[in-house]
């Protein structure tokens, strides 16, 4: 898969949005204006003015709108040129945008020997894999490389959410997963730590200072981190597999399909749970601060 980046003005990005109106994706991508997919090409426009085109025809689609600013063969300007071949500890999270299910954060370590095995396995962005592929691949990855997985269940999430906003919560979990994995692989030290960026670096640093054992050295931040190192891709797959397993377990317990995301099916299931057991039941399975809770209450 290739990728191409354009740097556009706000008015130009609005033209893109209008053009791709029928192809918009309703998903929450941090710091983005919109996401869309047309003819196999994914388009993500960021608030910074950068627009990322991904897919086999990414460059062709991008040239409709201007001259590419960067290609997928180049790493982020903040990363060393040989970053993809370094021994890296990467972290990513899944479940942040889903009303039901936990928040899963994973840190994974891949050295040069691991990279060969991960490439052979076909490790890549979890969003490009089917759920069945993710489940199967995660099992193999767990046997190949060191990792640390943290799963914050909805009931605990709801308990700490008033004190920890969504960003601070993720900072705390990423920091803890990274710290625990560093302890696990010691005395080995990674060449770098790469966090799939979910908030500006300054914001991350502000919150991590509030942790009792902050990890601060050799940390890089970049969106779409799985494109820059397989450690992040592996962490993403492990997190996603865990999230899917948790949804399956909840579905089995409740006797109803527990959906991912935060759409209408989530509202309807939440309303059903409210009728069955009130808020005390719902809080065990859903992140209550989402707007879905109010929508479900109206349905009831």
TrEMBL record:
Record flagged with keyword Magnesium: yes
Pfam families associated with the record: DUF3378, RNase_HII
Signal peptide: none
Compartment(s): Cytoplasm
Main location: cytoplasm
UniProt cofactor note: Manganese or magnesium. Binds 1 divalent metal ion per monomer in the absence of substrate. May bind a second metal ion after substrate binding.
InterPro entries in the record: RNase_HII/HIII, RNase_HII/HIII_dom, RNase_HIII, RNase_HIII_N, RNaseH-like_sf, RNaseH_sf, TBP_dom_sf
Membrane as UniProt keyword: no
Annotated ranges, domain RNase H type-2: 86-300
Enzyme Commission designation: 3.1.26.4
Binding-site positions, a divalent metal cation: 92-93, 196
Required cofactor names: Mg(2+); Mn(2+)
UniProtKB keywords: Cytoplasm, Endonuclease, Hydrolase, Magnesium, Metal-binding, Nuclease
Free-text function comment from the UniProt entry: Endonuclease that specifically degrades the RNA of RNA-DNA hybrids.
Name recorded for this polypeptide: Ribonuclease HIII
Species of provenance: Enterococcus viikkiensis
């Amino acid at each position: 898969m290739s990728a191409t980046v354009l740097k556009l003005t706000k008015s130009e990005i609005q033209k893109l949005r209008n053009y791709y109106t029928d192809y918009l994706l309703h998903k929450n991508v941090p710091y983005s204006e919109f996401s869309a997919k047309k003819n196999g090409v994914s388009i993500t426009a960021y608030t910074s003015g950068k627009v990322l085109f991904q897919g086999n025809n990414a460059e062709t689609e991008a040239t409709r709108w201007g001259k590419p600013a960067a290609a997928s063969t180049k790493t982020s300007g903040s990363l060393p040129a040989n970053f993809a071949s370094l021994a890296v500890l990467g972290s990513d999270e899944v479940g942040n945008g889903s009303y039901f299910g936990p928040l899963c954060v994973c840190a994974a370590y891949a050295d040069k020997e691991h990279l060969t095995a991960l490439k052979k396995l076909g490790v890549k962005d979890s969003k490009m894999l089917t759920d069945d592929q993710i489940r199967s691949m995660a099992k193999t990855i767990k046997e190949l490389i060191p990792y640390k997985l943290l799963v914050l269940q909805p009931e605990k999430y709801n308990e700490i959410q008033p004190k920890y906003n969504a960003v601070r919560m993720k900072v705390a979990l990423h920091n803890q997963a990274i710290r625990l994995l560093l302890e696990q692989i010691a005395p080995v030290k990674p060449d770098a730590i790469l966090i799939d960026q979910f908030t500006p670096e300054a914001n991350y640093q502000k919150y991590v200072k509030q942790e009792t054992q902050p990890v601060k050295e050799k940390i890089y931040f970049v969106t779409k981190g799985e494109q820059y190192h397989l450690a992040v891709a592996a962490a993403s797959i492990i997190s996603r597999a865990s999230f899917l397993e948790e949804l399956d377990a909840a579905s089995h317990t409740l006797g109803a399909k527990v959906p991912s995301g935060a759409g209408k099916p989530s509202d309807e299931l939440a309303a059903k749970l409210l009728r069955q057991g009130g808020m005390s039941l719902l809080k065990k399975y859903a992140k209550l601060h989402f707007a879905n809770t109010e929508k479900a209450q109206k349905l009831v």
